[in-house]
Design brief:
The chain is built from 4 helices and 11 strands. By secondary structure, it is an alpha+beta fold.
């Protein structure tokens, strides 16, 4: 059974008194923008321009995005650059990439889906190959951020982790008890809140630590 990590992607108005939330149409525009960015990079054979650099010559980039009226889905790609391959024992070069090609190794694909109404992104965890949730947030903020800056200059992009089952399971399996809990509340888009929380949101408070 496939396992997914879920993130909350928000385009928050910089000034709630003057700027409206983007809504379903806005999140569709964001994912249409990701589609156009990806198609353009692959047509030009310039995937490196939309790739996020990880450790040890590894990179992650969007591979495909298909949008419908209420959601988008597609694939992200993680890969290593590998121009040369050597024999471990003799140090003999076995393969050298042809000039003008883009050689990669250790390729891993991750399916994902994005719901426009809840603005949540779920990406498949493949046997520990997906980067950690914190790194994924950096990846998504970097790539989506470039699109958001162009399409929504009056909004702030925020991405938060919604579910990380491995961390929660670790807590339940190891903790003998709980004496304190710290959490960060992120105000949702498109939902009416209680009066006190709504007042904070209306005053451009996007996060509340409890």
């Amino acid at each position: 059974m496939a396992s997914f990590i879920v993130f909350n992607v928000q385009l928050l108005p910089a000034d709630t008194t003057k700027i409206r939330e983007v809504g379903i149409v806005g999140y569709k525009r964001l994912l249409d923008g990701l589609h156009n960015l990806t198609v353009d990079a692959f047509k030009k054979k310039q995937i490196d321009t939309i790739s996020y650099s990880l450790l040890n010559d590894a990179y992650m980039a969007p591979r495909s995005t298909i949008t419908t009226d209420d959601h988008a889905y597609g694939e992200w790609l993680k890969y290593n650059l590998g121009e040369d391959i050597e024999d471990l024992y003799s140090n003999t070069k076995l393969f050298t990439a042809t000039k003008g090609t883009f050689p990669i190794a250790n390729r891993h694909s991750f399916d994902y889906v994005f719901d426009f109404q809840t603005h949540r992104l779920a990406i498949q965890e493949v046997s520990g190959k997906l980067p950690s949730p914190d790194v994924c947030i950096n990846i998504f903020e970097s790539i989506f951020g470039k699109i958001a800056d162009t399409l929504f200059p009056n909004h702030i992009l925020k991405i938060n982790l919604i579910s990380d089952p491995t961390k929660l399971e670790q807590i339940f399996n190891t903790a003998a008890g709980y004496k304190s809990v710290k959490t960060t509340l992120t105000f949702p888009n498109g939902h009416r809140l209680g009066s006190q929380l709504q007042e904070l949101k209306d005053n451009n408070v996007h996060h509340l630590k409890v």
